[in-house]
């Protein structure tokens, strides 16, 4: 058997643009070498200006997302205001570190817009936040997507250009990984709207 | 209902609810993903009137560079800084925790934090966890007892010495420090020595790399130079940049969610959709 993170497969990527952010994920849900479905959701909208992408063991993706939904709902009820993306990024780090000795097998990416400024943070499975780069990857195909991102990415892209760049990086990376693929979804968030594009990829 | 009781009673600290499940998975043969470690070279040098600490900026996950420019010099108090090697998540959260703990104590007692206080608190926390909290720190600061430099190992051992190095590149750095350290250095000499020691770590150790960060603490204040040396900057410009045409990636469907109106619409006609 391989690693726990390779059991279900999947890849995610996040990028910063000029006053916008983009997230992309593949759609495969598998059990080792078998594919169960090709429409599994891995990017979740936590709030109008925050997106959370999760990769790793799918049951922990589901549990962790439910935990974050609960936290943000309680926050909204207690504080009677929206949560800032930097606050949410720190919340994810703390929630992961709380389970330092029995971790969730997820590697999240948080992306958001705070007063128009893009925020992007990634974590290892125990909550080490890394938020200084302009693009972040996660999942089994992550290392291959890193290569594509280093080649295609430019700083300060417009939302339309960013959608192309992140889509191409995701597809190029997933094509080299047998455990990711079967489609892709690209989310681009600006202050005014969120666009969701379901990509057509090779069906293998 | 029991879940609610557990939630209401949670008093902070670590949550061990996943441990049993994870142990079962490991027994079945699954391997965990490596945590982000700061492979690292960190050094501390004591000089006449203060202390200098320096670190590289590479964070690794296995053999992949997870972060090319991470920060390994953390503030514990306005007059005490820590350089950290080991598991990155542990370092970040423990340093943040101690920063808050010391601040609370300063507010309660109205006294400056002391280096030996930090060492005692740290080692008392680390020892009961038997090395499982993977933080190896070099603590340096200046207080009423003068400038002090100490290192703390993950098991809770501490050593006071005028020069220290820790991390995977520590042996390379120690070579430079043992050869060139003297008592009574000036601030600039100490900074140069620390940078040279980190350079040795960066070039000879694969777990350390990228840039050098330096902090110099004296009773006049803290001088933090982020990326004082950069060895891995991209030195070429791509001649023909990739410029993707807009709306070129083929799609099956496209949706748009307008945030102000809170409306979801399907967008279809403007772009090429391949059946």
Description:
- Chain A: Pfam families: Proteasome.
- Chain A: Belongs to the peptidase T1B family.
- Chain A: It is found in: Cytoplasm; Nucleus.
- Chain A: This is Proteasome subunit beta.
- The complex is a heterodimer of chains A (about 200) and B (about 280).
- In chain A, strands 10-1-2-11-12 form a five-stranded antiparallel beta sheet, covered by helices on one side. A five-stranded antiparallel beta sheet of chain A has the order 5-6-7-8-9, covered by helices on one side.
- In chain A, helix 3 crosses helix 4.
- Chain A is globular and about 45 Å long.
- With about 200 residues, chain A is α+β, with helices and mostly antiparallel strands.
- In chain A, strand 11 and strand 12 form a beta hairpin.
- Chain A has a single domain, classed as Aminohydrolase, N-terminal nucleophile (Ntn) domain (Glutamine Phosphoribosylpyrophosphate, subunit 1, domain 1, 4-Layer Sandwich), CATH 3.60.20.10.
- Chain A is built from four helices and twelve strands.
- Chain B is of the alpha+beta class and about 280 residues long.
- Chain B is built from six helices and 15 strands.
- At the A-B interface, helix 2, strand 9, helix 3, helix 4 and strand 12 of A face helix 2, strand 5, helix 3 and strand 14 of B.
Number of domains of chain A: 1
Structural class of chain B: alpha+beta
Strand content of chain A: 25-35%
Strand content of chain B: 25-35%
CATH architectural grouping of chain A = 4-Layer Sandwich
Structural class of chain A: alpha+beta
Low-confidence segments of chain A, given as residue ranges, are none
Give helix and strand order of chain B, one letter per element, not per position.
HHEEEEEEEHHEEEEHHEEEE
**Outline type of chain A:** globular
Summed over residues and divided by their number, the pLDDT of chain B gives a mean of 88
Shape of chain B: globular
Report how far the terminal alpha carbons of chain A are from each other. 23 Å
Largest interface: A-B, 57 and 55 residues
Main sheet attributes: strand count, strand direction, barrel closure of chain B: 6 strands, antiparallel
Give the beta-strand count of chain B: 15
Counted by DSSP, the helix tally of chain A is 4
Give the strand order of the largest sheet of chain A, numbering strands 1, 2, ... along the chain.
10-1-2-11-12
Query: What is the overall pLDDT average of chain A?
Result: 92
The helicity of chain B comes to 25-40%
Organism (chain A): Paramecium octaurelia
InterPro entries (chain A): Ntn_hydrolases_N (IPR029055), Proteasome_beta_3 (IPR033811), Proteasome_bsu_CS (IPR016050), Proteasome_sua/b (IPR001353), Proteasome_suB-type (IPR023333)
Family (chain A): Belongs to the peptidase T1B family.
Subunit structure (chain A): Component of the proteasome complex.
């Amino acid at each position: 058997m391989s690693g726990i993170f390779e059991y279900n497969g999947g890849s995610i990527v996040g990028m910063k643009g000029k006053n916008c952010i983009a997230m992309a994920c593949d759609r495969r849900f598998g059990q080792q070498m078998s594919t169960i479905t090709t429409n599994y959701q891995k990017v979740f909208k936590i709030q109008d200006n925050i997106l959370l992408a999760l990769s790793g063991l799918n049951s922990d993706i589901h549990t962790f997302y439910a935990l974050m939904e609960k936290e943000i709902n309680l926050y909204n009820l207690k504080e009677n205001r929206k949560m800032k993306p930097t606050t949410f990024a720190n919340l994810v780090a703390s929630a992961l570190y709380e389970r330092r000795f029995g971790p969730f097998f997820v590697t999240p990416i948080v992306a958001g817009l705070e007063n128009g400024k893009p925020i992007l943070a990634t974590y290892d499975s125990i909550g080490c936040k890394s938020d200084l780069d302009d693009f972040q990857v996660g999942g089994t195909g992550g290392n291959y997507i890193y290569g594509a991102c280093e080649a295609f990415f430019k700083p300060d892209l417009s939302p339309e250009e960013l959608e192309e760049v992140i889509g191409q990086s995701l597809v190029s990376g997933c094509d080299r990984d047998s455990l990711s693929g079967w489609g892709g979804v690209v989310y681009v968030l600006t202050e005014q709207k969120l666009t969701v594009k379901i990509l057509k990829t090779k069906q293998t | 209902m029991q879940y609610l009781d557990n939630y209401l009673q949670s008093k902070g600290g670590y949550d061990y609810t996943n441990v049993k499940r994870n142990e079962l998975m490991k027994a079945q043969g699954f391997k965990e993903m490596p945590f982000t470690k700061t492979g690292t070279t960190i050094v501390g040098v004591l000089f006449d009137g203060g202390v200098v600490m320096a670190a590289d900026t590479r964070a690794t996950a296995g053999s992949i560079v997870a972060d090319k420019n991470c920060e390994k010099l953390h503030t514990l108090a306005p007059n005490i800084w820590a350089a950290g090697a080991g598991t990155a998540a542990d370092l970040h959260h423990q340093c943040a925790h101690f920063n808050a703990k010391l601040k609370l104590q300063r507010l309660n007692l109205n006294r400056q934090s002391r280096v030996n206080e930090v060492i005692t608190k740290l080692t008392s926390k680390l020892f009961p966890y038997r090395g499982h909290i993977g933080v190896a720190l070099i603590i340096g600061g200046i207080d009423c007892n003068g400038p002090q430099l100490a290192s703390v190992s993950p098991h809770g051992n501490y050593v006071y010495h005028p020069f220290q190095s820790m991390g995977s590149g520590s042996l390379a750095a120690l070579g430079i420090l043992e050869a060139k350290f003297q008592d009574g250095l000036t601030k600039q000499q100490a900074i140069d020595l620390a940078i040279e020691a980190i350079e040795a770590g960066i070039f000879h150790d694969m777990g350390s790399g990228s840039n050098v960060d330096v902090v110099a603490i004296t009773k006049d204040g803290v001088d933090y130079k982020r990326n004082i040396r950069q060895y891995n900057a991209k030195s070429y410009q791509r001649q023909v940049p990739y410029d993707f045409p807009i709306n070129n990636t083929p799609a099956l469907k496209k949706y748009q969610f307008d945030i102000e109106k809170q409306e979801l619409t399907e967008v279809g006609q403007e772009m090429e959709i391949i059946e």
